[in-house]
Automatic annotation (TrEMBL):
Residues 63-162 form the HTH marR-type domain. One of its GO terms (biological process) is response to stress. Residues 16-34 have a biased composition (Basic and acidic residues). InterPro entries: HTH_MarR-typ, MarR/SlyA-like, WH-like_DNA-bd_sf, WH_DNA-bd_sf. PANTHER family: MARR-FAMILY TRANSCRIPTIONAL REGULATOR, TRANSCRIPTIONAL REGULATOR, MARR FAMILY. This is MarR family transcriptional regulator. It holds the Pfam family MarR_2. Residues 1-34 are annotated as: Disordered.
Length: 181
């Protein structure tokens, strides 16, 4: 079972062994002349995306793990981190879903008391979204959990590696979410 979990999630069985394996690939060139570590970066990225896609909102929500609770955490995260005045279109754009889907997600999150709609003065048909106190609490809980996960996953790394990786990960995430790929 441990073997199949590692294969499904990409989790190493032995962190020291994984580092040793990574180090042995560093600087090696594959049959096409590409750096072997760089060739593995894309697949590693998508393995990580698959692994965390549904796990982080479930775990960030705490005991609430039903699908509607997961979507609430995602909506709260987007409302809490979108610059300017987030609205249903912001949610739809961030998730890559139809505005009608985003509208239903927003309505559920409003009903749960995590966000509120604020009618825009310039267009009464549209509304800004803002976190409620409960929404701020949920977002704070999610951020704490995310920080704990990062710390746990990099706990055995040298401090310099953790700091470098953190800076590069933020840079990568900023680029990925603004690139429109």
């Amino acid at each position: 079972m441990e073997q199949s979990h590692r294969q499904a999630t990409g989790a190493p069985s032995d962190p020291a062994g994984d580092r040793a394996g990574h180090a042995s690939r560093e600087g090696q060139v594959d049959s096409k002349g590409h750096d072997a570590a760089l060739a593995q970066a894309g697949p590693a990225l998508f393995r990580m995306i698959r692994y965390w896609a549904r796990r982080w909102p479930q775990r960030a929500a705490g005991a609430e793990t039903e699908t509607k609770h997961v979507s609430r955490v995602v909506v709260v995260d987007i409302v809490g981190t979108t610059p300017g005045r987030p609205n249903v279109r912001s949610i739809a754009d961030a998730l890559g879903v139809d505005p009608s889907v985003a509208s239903r997600m927003v309505a559920d999150t409003v009903a749960a008391g995590l966000i509120e709609r604020r009618t825009m003065e310039r267009d009464a048909r549209n509304a800004d979204l803002a976190l409620t106190e409960s929404g701020h609490d949920l977002l704070a809980h999610a951020r704490t959990w995310q920080g704990d996960v990062f710390a746990a996953l990099t706990a055995d790394w040298p401090a310099e590696d953790r700091e470098t990786f953190a800076a590069l990960l933020v840079r990568f995430a900023d680029r990925a979410t603004s690139a429109g790929l």
